[in-house]
Amino acid sequence: MSTSTIHDIGYRHYEGRRNGRAYVLRSLYVHNLRAAFGLGRPARAKIMPFVLAGIMMLPAAGSVAVFTVTDEADALIPYAAYANIMQVIVAIFLATQAPVLASREVRFHVIPLYFSRPVGHLDFVLAKSAALVTALFALMASPVTLLYVGGLVAKAPDPGRQLLEYLGGLVGCLLFALVLAAIGMVVAAFTPRRGFGVAAVIAVYMISTTFVGIVQGIAEVRTNFALQGWIGLAAPFNLVDIVQVRLLGAESSLAGIAPGVTGGVVALAVCAAIVIGSVAVLYRRFRKAGLS
């Protein structure tokens, strides 16, 4: 029989600082936020998000330039309307980046590794969702800020009103980011392959927008303006626009707005339900993936 020998290799317990759960959560948020813009990834991953971000800035820059030359206040694009005007670009950004944040770990079956650290399932969901919300907010708020700063430099009339409208526009951008990120994350989380995820998010956007547009057109022809307004709750951009118009005092940028303050409150409640429901669905999805 061979004789076993135990060697003293000098093992010591770790006695340094333990950063804990908050550090893990913050690191996960920062990692996903960087991933949304392709940072820390190959060069080809940076092309789409930064090209889309550049396209988002072009109308704002052009609007400020026209205002500087003509001195016409109408040349400045309304802050609250900017996201709706550029909704196709925002939707493409959402479709291309939501799968990066929501489905890569599912596809490669590495979610259990995350939960081997002091981070819970809810923390995982909140960090990823917050990263996509931040990315979308930055995408929409940057050109709105350019409009505001450019207007001030070019001496737009009534700076006080401009400030209030700008702040309202930022609130609208945040609401857009929350609703769109909630929808995009849920769709992408159930389509592990990135190509399918991109197509699925685009399909949800196009189908909802087209359906609402068709119904609103029919309702307008039949002078059923109540239906024309309320059906807007079924499309994310129309939904947030109702809140902006009815609760934040913005001018409508889309056809058909749910009537009165009641319409705004209902639209806001729907937004909250979408966000909370998204967190619940993602929690169950990633929890199940973590056990597999």
UniProtKB/TrEMBL annotation:
UniProt keyword list: Membrane, Transmembrane, Transmembrane helix
Keyword Acetylation listed: no
Transmembrane feature ranges: 47-69, 76-95, 130-154, 166-190, 196-218, 261-283
Protein name per the record: ABC-2 type transport system permease protein
